[in-house]
């Protein structure tokens, strides 16, 4: 089934490459701060690293997905706040997290989770949305080329969505 | 413009009335809170249909408060705090779009709970004012019009049928169904073949089931599932006489001289208020929301809400008691090639304990864990208290998806009506339109859990016999949000019931309630078949007596 990458997903993915940037989603007045998303992106890469059997977070578009869905009104505002808060907390405790090697990042994250109940809830929440990115329909910006489904030989239900958010097809 | 009949809601309880009235030539308008999505719009999008509030109101727009007993006190918590919605599908066709369609009729004993088993302390059990025989022709009508597929399995408590066979043959079954049959045989249980409101053969504009493997919780893209929309409303719209107004949230019914004159609704897209005039009004917004509408429709004649001078509106709300259980299967119990077959149905139930230890019992339905990969994978991220990621998590997910399959069971038994399960409204909690939301007190009778546990034991025996691993069950007193009934009991006494035997309000002669609200006791099966059947019955009554209201 043919699908097009939406403009918003495209913008979100491009912005990730930059430094501190602000994204103004459609119909929203508060910009999303991209800086925490850099931290979230690094942590997602620890949760799904390169070199294992499953695709890595960057390969399946974990952060692009999160940027896309978190701007929709159906996204839980409290979750977005907590994701941002946790990213700040992690950097407070592990200030050089972003410049660590993957192995060091993994250790730092395990340490963060073990010594901080809030840290554990935060990683659990981020992992939840990372798994959404891995197994949702590619129309939302994750599961690029259906790599998540292919990894598990999972046959998705037909028909696949032609539009996000169950919108009416004209 | 004045209509003959205005129906609030478009789900199963609304559609039987709408179908019957439009067929008789009455001019009908239906008010639906959500949009009109059809087969062409539907997909198997786990995010939209299972993970977000898209086909239900955003909880910032509207919500419920759940009133639960905490340390001896009843405490109200809004669902936007618990993040658990009690709305169940607000699009044309209502929650019937998303049902799994496990279809069971009520049994004759369900109409006579009090006279058969006697009173239970703390429960408001009564007999119904109609019996099974009165509803049977309508159960049969549902089989034909909504479309029920299956094969009759004789067993001790089987209800009488006016026809021998189901109009549609059984759906294709998964190899595990035979395993259930064998295990039941050696245990001396009857493996009951579950009828489904899913077409195995095409009907009119509806195609047959295409075994998508994404059925329960998803709308059906072929029209095979017997949703109110696919089976009754789309054909009625095509015939003419039926107008469906979408994005219409009905906030109030206006009353004058003990008659409803107008339904006031807010267009949720333009936020503008409109009124609809009609001779007859039918409320069918699912039990909780129907009660809320009546309670919020206050007037001089009805200071406590429309048709509520008895104080009975909202009372004796019912859910379905029971819970869920599961067992794991892998290559050791069954060849993997057979086990991993996708899309085909299990369609087996246990109904041998509709009566158990001289109490009213219930049923057990078997089904595979839903295919939903997000939901399945995210459950794997915890190992006890430990959060997994990296290789450990990947290995666990890979094993779960490629080497195992989980067979679940669901227990359904009576949710006894009590004084601690009801709908009320509270000026302190309002939606974005300034209308008080429904508060749901969710107290349950301890008897419900006792019966549920007896039934779960039988189900677990079947799983053991089949060689399942990690057999678990969790029976709970927490209400399943999608199985609602009661709140506007029908009965002969206006002091103890809201509706008469025709589901017409005792106090308001042109007002009917045709969803599951009328049920004084719930029975031990899912409600949909009964709600459809009763909706057709109410429709027939209105048509036969239309001259009373329509000039």
Number of domains of chain A: 1
Q: Helicity range of the residues of chain A?
A: 40-55%
Biggest interface and residues each: A-B, 48 and 44 residues
Estimate the helix proportion of chain B, in percent. 25-40%
Query: Structural class of the secondary structure composition of chain B?
Result: alpha+beta
Low-confidence stretches of chain B: none
Number of strands of chain A: 2
Q: CATH H level of chain B: which superfamily? A: FAD/NAD(P)-binding domain
> Order of strands side by side in the largest beta sheet of chain A?
1-2
Q: Biggest sheet of chain A: strands, sense, closure?
A: 2 strands, antiparallel
| Whole-number mean pLDDT of chain B | 97
Number of helices in the DSSP assignment of chain B: 13
> What profile does the largest beta sheet of chain B have?
7 strands, mixed
Broad shape of chain A: globular
What is the straight-line distance between the termini of chain A? 17 Å
Radius of gyration of chain B: 23 Å
Please tally the β strands of chain B and state the result: 23
SSE arrangement:
The complex is a heterodimer of chains A (170) and B (551).
Chain A: H1 7-16, E1 22-23, E2 32-33, H2 34-47, H3 57-60, H4 62-69, H5 77-93, H6 102-114, H7 117-135, H8 147-151
Antiparallel strand pairs in A: 1-2
Helix pairs in contact in A: 1-4, 2-5, 2-6, 2-7, 4-7, 5-7
Chain B: E1 2-8, H1 12-23, E2 28-31, H2 46-51, E3 65-70, E4 73-78, H3 79-82, H4 113-117, H5 132-147, H6 176-187, E5 192-193, H7 228-239, E6 242-245, E7 248-256, E8 259-267, E9 273-283, H8 287-296, E10 315-318, E11 320-330, H9 336-339, E12 348-350, E13 355-356, E14 359-360, E15 362-368, H10 373-379, E16 382-383, E17 386-387, H11 390-403, E18 404-414, E19 421-430, E20 436-442, H12 446-466, E21 469-476, E22 485-487, E23 511-513, H13 528-544
Parallel strand pairs in B: 1-2, 1-9, 2-6, 3-20, 9-23
Antiparallel strand pairs in B: 3-4, 5-12, 7-8, 8-9, 10-22, 11-18, 11-21, 12-15, 13-14, 15-18, 16-17, 19-20
